[in-house]
Amino acid sequence: MNAIIAVSSEGPTLADAVDPRFGRAAGFVLVDPAGNVSYLDNGSSQAMAHGAGLETARRLADAGVSVVLSGVVGPKAAAALKAAGLTAVEGLDGRTVGEAVAAYRAGQTG
Amino acid sequence: MGVMRGGKKGLRLAIASGKGGTGKTTVTAALASVWSQALCRPVLAVDCDVEEPNLHLFLRPVIRRAETAKLEIPMVAEAALCADCGACRELCQFGAVTVMAGKPLVFPEMCHGCGGCLAVCPTGALVAGSRELGRIEEGATETAGYLAGRLRIGEAQSPPLIRAVLARLSKVAEPGADVLIDAPPGVSCPAVTTVSGADAVLLVAEPTPFGIHDFELAVEAFTPLGKPMAVAINRSGPGTPELLALCRGHNLPVVAEIANDRVVAETYARGGLLHEAGAHYRAVCFALARSLAELPQTAREAAHV
Predict the structure, then answer these.
(1) Contacts of A68 in chain B (CB under 8 A)
(2) CB-nearest partner of B100 from A50, A51, A83
(3) In terms of CB atoms within 10 Å, which end of chain A has fewer, N or C?
(4) What CATH number is given for B70-132 in this structure?
């Protein structure tokens, strides 16, 4: 459990809702193994005509993330995440960021 | 450019429209059938509406040759060769190639085939591969040569196949033959790619509100290409005066007017051709063929007035 987890999010805190989109998410809440929370803005990818998922995947890889929690990850973004060795977990929309992280950790430990 | 007397080089005419369903194929098929008789010149009919080719339904050509058309795209030869320089990723405007953690990744369906990534890759990690675009069919009817593209199901881009059909056209067309190109509908890349490969344009327009709206878009899109352009009005009706006024305003000659006639619709529904709908329509088709053959010259003279 020493991975940095990134959650696609509609806002910068654990109380914000998970953004169901990956490539065009507003931003990502990053949670490190010590529980420190930071925010990675993804606004520039939102504005791209195409290639948003690839750009976002690269941004997360550069930030040292190893686990991504989101709603749906597109096929190209998924290929890029896989190539970079990141794990992507889909279907976590409809919760807050904090709940998503807790659910992921519960799944990991349970 | 244009028609040269003495049969040195034929006319290449694109039959286009803004709105779909105005009668491009009806007009193309009829012209292909009467052209040689009306003008004593060989003619080749080309279906560039590769997403939904239907000219063959009316012309019923015998297909003599078919080939697969391909687009050159990058593929990863050996990921270990990648220097992780990112040059390919920086160059590609379509996100078709990227590098993640030192591994080159290609998304074939996104590639437009420019070849840029292959040119900038310093290590040979990327090499030339290919993506199937569709098929190109060649054949003949009793009255015309026939060439058509058919897009592969699942292929998202039609302009590369249209360019391949036009390249094939340059190889197979007899130098003196005229060419009638059934264009895709609309005014976006497929239609513009097709019209760009012609010397002159016939716009088939219908006088409905939607038809007139899209006719104006077509005039706006194709005028900058600088090719002689004429208009055939199909399903002529109450909106025809408005359409005629627009044509006058744009200095576009109206070379045919086809009535909104049940006989024409019945002929079409049987898979018949416009000139088979009766003596009147036969005369309309012959007159249209003759007007179009003169179009480049008429436009040159008009430009010099």
Answers:
(1) none
(2) A83
(3) C
(4) 3.30.70.20
